[in-house]
Each structure stands twice: as structure tokens, then as C-alpha cells.
Amino acid sequence: MQSFDWPVRVYYEDTDSGGVVYHANYLKFMERARTEWLRQLGFEQNVLKDEYNCLFAVHSMQINFRRPARFNDALLIRSEMTQTSGASMQFEQSVLRDDELLCSASVRVACLDAKRFKPCPIPFFILTEMQCEC
């Protein structure tokens, strides 16, 4: 449906004692890319929470590590929204160095009522913007 690319530079703090990106930091890179995708659509997460009682949270993820990223690498985080259904969105995300695939993940994100932390439908005005970008 939709794709968004976000550049990331690997800092020393992102690496482990072996000089490669620590596995949990790939999740941070992907989270930031999804946040920037929402921002590019015109949605700030604090505004969604405070004014529309809406939060997005990762429900599930399957991740595959293929090649290591290293200190000072310029990476591209590609996020493709592949499905929306009621209260959730499915993303396919990739971490690339040049055109080399380093890591990929399938991520399901749930829309939650910010006060009750229960699933709720993705607001129509958000879905409309998502569809316009497709």
C-alpha cells in the first residue's frame, strides 16, 4: 500500500562490544521510522494521544537478521504499510545499507484507546491520510 524511507546513521552507542549494531537497536530504528512516517502524514503521536485518545503500540513482530550493520554505516529504514484492518496495521520493514538487506521484520501495530489501553478502530481521519499516500 505505502512505503516510507528514513535514513539512519549508526553511532558508537548503537554498537555492541563486537563493533556491530546491537540487535535491539534495529527495533529502535524501525520504531523511529514508523514515527517519522506518521509525522510526514501530519500526525504527531502526542497530539493523537492528548486530543484524540489514540495510541499505536506494537502487537507482534517477526524479525530476521541477515548481515551486521557497523559503526558509522549510513542505513535506510524502509517501512511499507501492507494492510489495515479495523484496529491494526501491518508493516514490512527493512534495514538496508546501500541496496544490501541487513534486517527485515513483519510488524503488526495496534491502535489503542489511550485511557483504557484497549484496542479501538483506527480513526477515519488517519486512515484517509494513509490511503491518500498509497
From TrEMBL:
SUPFAM superfamilies: Thioesterase/thiol ester dehydrase-isomerase. The keyword Membrane does not apply. It holds the Pfam family 4HBT. The keyword Hydrolase applies. Keywords: Hydrolase. NCBIfam families: thio_ybgC, YbgC/FadM family acyl-CoA thioesterase. This is Acyl-CoA thioester hydrolase YbgC. It comes from Methylophaga muralis.
